[in-house]
Structure formats: C-alpha cells, structure tokens
Amino acid sequence: MASDVCAGSNRAIVRASRRRAAAVNAPALTGLGALGVAVTALFIVDPVPVQLRWFLVGVTWTAVVVAAGVVIHLATGEHRRVLGDVAEQFTARLICSHWQRLKGWRIVEGLYFAGHGDVDHVLVGPMGLWAVESKWVTDEATIDGDELHLAWGGNPLRQARTGARKVELALRFGRDRIDVRVRPMIVLWGPGAPSLPSGYVDLAGVTVVEGRTGWRYRRRFLAGDRLAPRLKSACLTLLTQLDAKQRIGCRPADQQAHRKCRDG
C-alpha cells in the first residue's frame, strides 16, 4: 500500500494532511456542496437576466470552493508546513528555473538523512553542488555578525552546514565514491526576510540569499569552480537513486512532486 507520507517532503506531508482533513470533514464539505447546488437552482429558476444569473452562479461556486479550502486548511493544523512548502517551491524556481535547466542545472528535492531530517534541495550544476534550505520567515529575521537569527529559534546556519556535510558523505561513501565539495545555502522568503543590499551574504561559510531579489544575483551566488560533466552526471545519478529509494511506497503524485527540474 502506498504510504501517506514520503520522508523529507513538506509537500507530501501537507497533501496527506489535506486528504485526512477532507475525509474527517466530509459531512461539512458535502453540506457546502449541497448548499451550492440549492443556491444555483434558485438562481436558475428565478427570472433574472441571463448574464446576471450566471454571474451569481459563478460567485456562489467560487465562495463554495474557497470555503471548502478554508475548512480543509484549518483542519490540517499544518499552516507552518504549508508556508514551508511554498518557500520550497519558490526556491526551486529561483535556483532551477527553465533557463537554468537549459544551462545544465538539475535539482533533487527532499533527501532525508537519519539524525538530521531532510535537505530541502540539492542543486547540481556546471559550477558545483549546493545543499539548499528554504525558510519562510513571518517574523523579522536578523543578521548579527556571522549569525542569522530567526524568531522561532534554532540554528539555521548549522542546519545548512550539517545538510551539506550529509550530502557530501552520501556521495563519498556511495557506490562511485565521489569526493566533491557541497556548499550550504539558505534562501529566505516571507515578510520577515531581511533586505540584503547585494541580494545575498556569506555567513560563516553559508550563503544566505534574499529570495525576493535572488534572481538578480543568481549568477554570483551560484558561481564556483567548474564541475566536469562526467562528475556532475555521476553526482546527479547517485543522488537521484538515493531519492528514488526514499520514495518507494509513496503515492505516485507525491513521487512526481520530487522530480521538479531533475529530468529537464
């Protein structure tokens, strides 16, 4: 049986929570649908101009869909994780856009490592490898010297460095014994993300990027020593295989969610 949750996937966890919330709240959702049908029938039989009638029907069903979405969202209790998923999608588009893929960049998402958790994205490209963490910051984040402070606490820089180290070890002790440097990166989104004059800053070896303006400086913060095509291919193959092993048993829709950018 397909599992409800794939390791290291905010998106998969949110989808599973939404499925459960929809099942638990099926009577309320059914009632909303019945109300929409009843109001639609009332507008159809009411002698109003045709254009106004279908406008009112459209408004009714828009309200029904929005209400159903609100019910499901509130019932999941995963608001913070939903914002995390949004941040991950924004980051994937920033670092591995269509133009980036044409230039040879690929991304593997949601790699899970025991004792650490998941690395949101591993970016593999002509200029090297990055382990990338995405953060949605609601309250103001501050930079003090070489430290990044987020309102919810924790040590995001250490998390990013540990994720990069885990990916390095996975490559070094994998089938092909690849010894390559993986650089840590954090991309910040949301109203609390700091405004960085140059779009990004290096904090104790971790590249911290302001997501809002990151596209302007992408060539700079993704610069590095050129990675040989054969080595790049070997890294991508090993990481893709590791990703595939972690997705065994996941629902097909959730497996597809992890292939963004990887296959070009």
Overview of the molecule:
This protein is of the alpha/beta class and 264 residues long. The chain is built from 9 helices and 8 strands. Strands 1-2-3-6-8-7 form a 6-stranded mixed beta sheet, with helices on both faces. Strand 4 and strand 5 (147-149) form a beta hairpin. Mean pLDDT is 83; it is low at 1-8 and 251-264.
Q: Distance between termini?
A: 30 Å
Characterize the largest beta sheet: strand count, sense, and whether it forms a barrel: 6 strands, mixed
Percent range for β-strand residues = 15-25%
- Stretches where pLDDT falls below 50 for ≥5 residues? 1-8, 251-264
Order of H and E elements:
HHHHHEEEEEHEEEHHH
Mean of all residue-level pLDDT scores: 83
| Physical arrangement of strands within the biggest beta sheet | 1-2-3-6-8-7
Structural class estimated from helices and strands: alpha/beta
Q: Sum up the overall morphology in one term.
A: elongated
Summarize the SSE layout with pairings.
Layout: H1 10-24, H2 26-45, H3 50-76, H4 79-95, H5 98-102, E1 106-113, E2 117-125, E3 128-136, E4 142-144, E5 147-149, H6 156-172, E6 182-189, E7 200-203, E8 206-210, H7 218-221, H8 229-247, H9 252-256
Parallel strand pairs: 3-6, 6-8
Antiparallel strand pairs: 1-2, 2-3, 4-5, 7-8
Helix pairs in contact: 1-3, 1-4, 2-3
